[in-house]
Automatic annotation (TrEMBL):
GO molecular function: ATP binding; ATP hydrolysis activity
Top-level taxonomic group: Bacteria
PROSITE patterns membership: ABC_TRANSPORTER_1, ABC_TRANSPORTER_2
SUPFAM superfamilies: P-loop containing nucleoside triphosphate hydrolases
UniProt organism field: Streptomyces nodosus
Name of protein: Sugar ABC transporter ATP-binding protein
Record domain ABC transporter: where: 22-262
One matching Pfam family: ABC_tran
CDD domains xref list: ABC_Carb_Monos_I (cd03216)
InterPro entries listed in its UniProt record: AAA+_ATPase, ABC_carbohydrate_import_ATPase, ABC_transporter-like_ATP-bd, ABC_transporter-like_CS, P-loop_NTPase
Keywords: ATP-binding, Nucleotide-binding
Length: 300
């Protein structure tokens, strides 16, 4: 799969100019006297993928916790459809169409796929005293919805725990789409996945975008972000280091921001100042391994 594959199909190439569904203006969050997030501006528009990148502890989870209703911002403003909001529970965010797919998916591993698809929102039939689960309709709907998203599973009766991590992410994405999400937040959906499965998840991120959802895609991986992203936000120590539309930033620049290019150069410089370390003479990682292996007193 190439970088262009998921982008140049039919998704909008440039920001659509549509009004943002979700917006942060100078938003921040302090936990006591720890300032986890500060002065963040972010806009999530329908039919676009907004990527949030950053190293460990950069504030990515804090950012999405504010939007998904788990935490409240302590500075700035948070708007949904242009109206300032302050959610006190994830349920309130969900009622406004903001759905979050967490890495540790809230599924029941031993229950069938279709049961998990409807978990907590089961379809029923019959009048009140004899109301029961409408199993046939749930199975049919889950099957249709998964197919609509291009997800083909052999058997919806199989326990969801038997699916691969990537497939489970896909079911969670299809579920959010079916239950009417307008904004879909994905917290590192590809972090634990191999190359192929990551590709599959990226495909469904693109499918959700093409259905008009605003997607917030949290990731460590600039390559994954660049395959589907329309806008890129790089967090560093709680503030936005970069916020750029796709046509304003290249994959190289994005990778450089993520790798902390400036920081590495500074470290090299610092090492050069330290007496006794000649960085030009430092062996490459490969050489180092070879010489360790050759050392007679090295444990085997
Ligand atoms: N509940 C909390 N109480 C105090 N400090 C917190 C809390 N949650 C996060 N922090 C701090 O806020 C900062 C940002 O954390 P956050 O979890 O948002 O980072 P992250 O970008 O999601 O990192 P990772 O990639 O490791 O998931 C960190 O310094 C963290 O220690
Ligand atoms: Mg996190």
């Amino acid at each position: 799969m190439t970088t262009a594959d998921l982008r140049d199909t039919d998704g909008p190439a440039a920001p659509s100019g549509k009004a943002p569904v979700v917006e942060l203006r100078g938003a921040g969050k302090s936990y006591g006297n720890i300032r986890a997030l500060h002065g963040v501006d972010l806009a999530v528009r329908p039919g676009e993928v907004t990527c949030v990148l950053g190293d460990n502890g950069a504030g990515k989870s804090t950012l999405i916790k504010i939007i998904s209703g788990l935490h409240q911002h302590t500075e700035g403003a948070f708007l949904v459809d242009g109206e300032p909001v302050r959610f006190s529970t994830p349920r309130e965010a969900l009622d406004r169409g903001i759905a979050t797919v967490y890495q540790d998916l809230a599924t029941v591993p031993l229950m069938p796929v279709w049961r998990n698809f409807f978990l907590g929102s089961e379809m029923t039939k019959g009048p009140w005293p004899v109301r029961r689960l409408d199993i046939a309709r749930m199975k049919k709907t889950a099957d249709d919805e998964l197919r609509n998203m291009g997800i083909v599973l052999d058997d919806l009766e199989q326990p969801i725990g038997t699916l691969s991590g990537g497939q489970r992410q896909c079911v969670a994405i299809a579920r959010a789409v079916y239950f009417g999400a307008r904004v879909l937040i994905l917290d590192e959906p590809t972090a634990a996945l191999g190359v192929k499965q990551s590709g599959v998840v990226l495909k469904y991120i693109a499918a959700a975008r093409d259905r008009g959802l605003g997607v917030i895609f949290i990731t460590h991986n600039p390559h994954h972000a660049y395959m589907v992203g329309d806008h890129f936000n790089v967090l560093r120590l709680g503030t936005l280091e970069l916020s750029a539309a796709r046509d304003k930033v290249s994959l190289e620049e994005l990778t450089n921001h993520m790798a902390g290019g400036a920081e590495l150069a500074a470290l090299r410089h610092e090492l050069a100042q330290t007496g006794g370390v000649d960085i030009e003479e430092l062996p490459e990682a490969g050489d180092l391994q070879a010489s360790t292996a050759a050392t007679p007193e090295g444990k085997s």
